[in-house]
Write a structure and sequence with these properties.
mainly alpha, Arc Repressor Mutant, subunit A
């Protein structure tokens, strides 16, 4: 197999291209790509524990804590100790982030549409199925 045909290389190349396009779209808002996706996840479920948010965005808690620190510093999110369990910290969006909700949500959908626009409806469905299958398999086991 030639290097250019390696699936890992091809997926990485596509991933970098998608990240570049997304970064260019979100950087005018002072956000990184990861911060953008984190806010998008919070728009879906805005009062969520750090543990549940880490699972939702597929990041470890340490990485997520750093991202939340920066978003909190920028006035976009706030942490709040849970009233049910003081050991649990919940993350909420701020009014500043709420003002960006429609713009960032539209941007999120526009970026996704741009990537999918090159595929037929049938190809989109197949692509989603293949990505989900690869995502859900434990490749660490051989």
């Amino acid at each position: 197999m030639l290097f250019k045909d390696c699936l890992c290389f091809q997926v990485g190349k596509v991933s970098r291209k998608m990240a570049r396009v997304t970064h260019e779209a979100v950087s005018p808002y002072g956000l990184t790509t990861t911060q953008f996706f984190l806010l998008t996840a919070l728009y879906e479920e805005e009062d969520i524990s750090i543990g549940a948010l880490a699972q939702k965005v597929a990041l470890d808690k340490a990485t997520l804590t750093g991202l939340i620190d920066r978003l909190e510093r920028d006035g976009l999110v706030m942490r709040q100790v849970s009233t049910e369990d003081r050991r649990t910290v919940r993350v909420r969006i701020t009014p500043k982030a709420e003002k960006l909700r429609e713009t960032l949500t539209n941007l999120y959908h526009d970026i996704n549409r741009r990537f999918l626009s090159f595929l037929t409806k049938k190809e989109q469905k197949i692509f989603e199925q293949v990505v989900a299958k690869i995502e859900n398999v434990d490749l660490m086991k051989s």
